[in-house]
Amino acid sequence: MNALEITGVSKYYGDYPALRDVGFAVEPGTTVALLGRNGAGKTTLLRIIAGLSKPTEGTVKIHGSDTRLEITRRKIGVLGHGISLYDELSAIENLILFGRLYDLENPRKRAEEWLERTGLARVRDGLVREFSRGMRQRLAVARAFLHEPEVLLFDEPFTALDDRAIAVLQTLLRDAHYAGRTIVMSTHQLREALEIATHVTLIQRGRVAYAGVRQQEMVDDPGWLYRTYGEG
Amino acid sequence: MIRFLRQCYTITAKDLRSELRTKEALNASLAFSLVILVLFSFAFDPSTDQFHDFSGGFLWLVFAFAGTLILNRSFARELQNDCLDALVASPVPAAALFLGKAVANLLLLMAIEFVSLLAFAFFYQVNWTTHAPSLLLVMALGTWALTVIGTVFSALTVNLRLRELMLPTLVYPLLIPALMAAILLTTDLLSGTPLGGDNLIWVKLLVAFDVIFTAVALAMMDTVLVG
């Protein structure tokens, strides 16, 4: 069974087609770099996959189930544009909160483990609003990984990260890949993404221009993909 | 069911903790209701019979306006850092999210209303203790009506630029039956008339309003949040 199966997905905002008949499948354990220019429809597609928005047409299945089912949402970890953390709560309170929402057995223990892994154990009781941008991003990464999801959906995960946060995220993504998790990440940072990705999907004006394995040419020359399959 | 209630409790506890740390909505709501009560105490003569006739209406006007200040923040709080996305993407059912937030709003509103009631009794020399349990019951039923409608519309208007304006515009017309019942019952209770007999129909109306709108809200919350 595919980890992710997208069939004939279209999304219209009024008359504007953000996505048109998008379809591709992702096998378990695959890391997909979702590429495309600004406004191509990457974020819209990721939001639909995450169950945050409904497609106008088409279906999205994760491990064969609808994305809005509770059992499916347990399997998904989402990191969007925002950090999705509460400024007025401390780092550990935020992680415990999400641990409880995901019904983890021992949310506090899991929260402490992830604070340790992201290098934030020292500031566990500090309020998020007092954190630097890099620390907030690392905590957001910990939140997304906290429940050890089978499918990770990341929207521009490397944007605005400091060097340490990029290193932490790359390590975690590699670990997740080796652990057999499925990763779909949209990004403009081609080099970072293509280093990790096993597959590439290029979205061009709401349509899939390329969906397949990552080729060596893409790593050697990130512009090659746009020149060959895109509009230059 | 236990998991559902636990998820509701987690959301309620989170909302209360957030609000008690920032006190954004609490301070605004409390200040608003106290200012209104103080200002109108200069405008009216509390000893007149006429005042007793509209005391319930006046009190619920304060509750309703102060309430929207709390309700406006309910989902707007989730916009910061895109927290709403994380909640909607989590396995928490939309109904549990709604119920958790509604209970947090109810507790905050009841706290504001109780302080306002004490201030009202002080400034307007009203004895509210004669039928205190009945009055608190009416306040709870009326406040739950305000909370249910307000929480649903707080979610619906959360992405609107003019949500502070839209929320009361949408909430008050729908609340008219519940507010009418709460006003009439509160006026009766403050005038010394106990619950029972003629005014029992208004209690039934309030209960029916609460049950129907809670059921509708629980059923439609996923559509409200995801579309």
Overview of the structural elements:
- The complex is a heterodimer of chains A (232) and B (227).
- By secondary structure, chain A is an alpha/beta fold.
- Chain A has helices at residues 42-49, 70-73, 91-101, 107-117, 133-145, 163-178, 190-196, 216-220, 223-229; strands at 4-13, 16-26, 31-35, 57-62, 65-66, 76-79, 151-155, 182-186, 199-204, 207-213.
- Chain A is 35% helix and 26% strand.
- Chain A has a six-stranded mixed beta sheet, with helices on both faces.
- Chain B has helices spanning 2-22, 24-43, 49-76, 83-89, 94-124, 132-156, 163-190, 200-226.
- In chain B, helix 2 runs antiparallel to helix 3, helix 5 packs across helix 8 and helix 6 packs parallel to helix 8.
- The two termini of chain B are 25 Å apart.
- Helix content of chain B is 82%, strand content 0%.
- Chain A binds chain B through residues 50-54, 68, 70-71, 73-74, 76, 78, 80-89, 93, 97-98, 100-103, 143, and chain B through 3, 6-7, 10, 14, 17-18, 21-22, 80-83, 85-93, 222, 226-227.
Beta-strand share of residues of chain B: under 5%
Could you list the spans of chain A in which at least 5 consecutive residues all have pLDDT below 50? none
Give the number of DSSP strands of chain B: 0
The gyration radius over C-alpha positions of chain B equals 18 Å
Please write the string of helix (H) and strand (E) elements of chain A: EEEHEEHEHHHEHEHEEHH
Total number of helical segments of chain B?
Answer: 8
Indicate the radius of gyration of chain A in whole angstroms.
Answer: 18 Å
Gap between N and C termini of chain A:
35 Å
State mean pLDDT of chain A (0 to 100 scale).
Answer: 89
Entry keywords:
heterodimer, A: 232 residues, alpha/beta, six-stranded mixed β-sheet, four-stranded antiparallel β-sheet, B: 227 residues, mainly alpha, 8 helices, globular
